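Renewal narrative, Specific Aim 1. Our central claim is that a sequence can be written position by position from structural information alone. The example that follows is taken directly from our test logs and has not been curated for this report. It begins with the structure tokens describing the chain, in the order in which they were read.
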């Protein structure tokens, strides 16, 4: 991901090398190139406009500096603005004062929710928590089984519907899962919920019902970074339909252009909290805007 954007930006900066001072024309040309690079990477237009506007304004105010030449100063400005659109500071999970902390996952089918649930559980376990996974995705035929298999691989217990345990009713399963965690002293509950292939009123209603039943401490919207501009529309639809506290980007290991990843935080105003970049359960970490910007500009 971001390979093309990285290359394009590197070319832009190369053109500035050796310049002693940036003229208005240099700044305009650089801004145009950055605009094209971002649009080609599939970054949403409003985000591109804001980004380029900010870079231009700051570039005009650049003083001749002993420490940094103009090219380096522009790189620094672009870096800072990338960090800003990616959400600024690293946003960490908020844990409930009275455990269990309830984390609910929402997102489209195929976004990587079930995989992510197990990754997050393993990550939390490695941080010293005792998570419980709850299989409340009763829409996709194999989702419960997949969570059980992944939970086993992660060494994390899975609460799943059984006869008499709320079969067919995801709200009852979610509620039962939180009760089970309380009873068995798990300090974090991760509730996997059902998606659909596209935005769908029934899915949103079900997610709202689960949210209202378990009052999560964190609702995380899971989005496949490979789906391009659609990610922004889906993110907005879930924000309006369910609401969430943070975003998880999945499939960052793919070779897509990466614009979705660069647009979602800025468009929704919600921070990207985690990044998932592979099919292995350990391909997962907190999302650090500064590190991601650094990777793009590397
Ligand atoms: P769900 O329908 O949202 O629960 O999605 P799944 O967790 O079943 O994931 C859908 C597909 O994407 C599966 O084949 C996963 O193995 C794959 N997947 C999930 N996360 C990643 C990731 O970060 N990178 C890659 N390459 N594949 C992923």
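The sequence written for that structure reads:
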């Amino acid at each position: 991901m971001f390979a093309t954007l990285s290359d394009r930006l590197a070319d832009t900066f190369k053109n500035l090398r050796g310049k002693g001072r940036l003229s208005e024309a240099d700044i305009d040309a650089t801004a145009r190139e950055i605009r094209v690079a971002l649009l080609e990477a599939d970054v949403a237009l409003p985000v591109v406009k804001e980004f380029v506007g900010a870079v231009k304004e700051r570039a005009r105010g650049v003083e001749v500096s002993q420490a940094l030449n103009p090219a380096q100063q522009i790189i620094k400005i672009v870096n800072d603005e990338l960090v800003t659109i990616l959400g600024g500071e690293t946003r960490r999970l908020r844990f409930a004062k009275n455990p269990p902390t309830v984390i609910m996952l929402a997102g489209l089918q195929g976004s990587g929710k079930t995989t992510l649930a197990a990754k997050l559980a393993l990550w939390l376990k490695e941080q010293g928590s005792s998570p419980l996974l709850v299989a409340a995705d009763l829409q996709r035929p194999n989702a419960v089984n997949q969570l059980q298999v992944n939970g086993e691989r992660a060494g994390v217990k899975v609460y799943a519907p059984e006869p008499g345990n709320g079969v067919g009713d995801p709200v009852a399963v979610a509620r039962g899962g939180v009760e089970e965690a309380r009873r068995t002293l798990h300090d974090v509950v991760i509730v996997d919920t059902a998606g659909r292939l596209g935005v769908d009123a029934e899915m949103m209603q079900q997610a709202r019902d689960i949210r209202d039943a378990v009052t999560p401490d964190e609702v995380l919207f899971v989005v496949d970074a490979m789906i391009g501009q659609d990610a922004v529309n889906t993110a907005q639809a879930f924000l309006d339909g369910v609401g969430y506290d943070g975003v998880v980007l999945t499939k960052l290991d793919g070779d897509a252009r990466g614009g979705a990843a660069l647009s979602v935080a800025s468009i929704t105003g919600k921070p990207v909290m985690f990044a998932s970049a592979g099919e292995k359960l350990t391909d997962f970490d907190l999302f650090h805007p500064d590190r991601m910007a650094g990777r793009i500009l590397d």
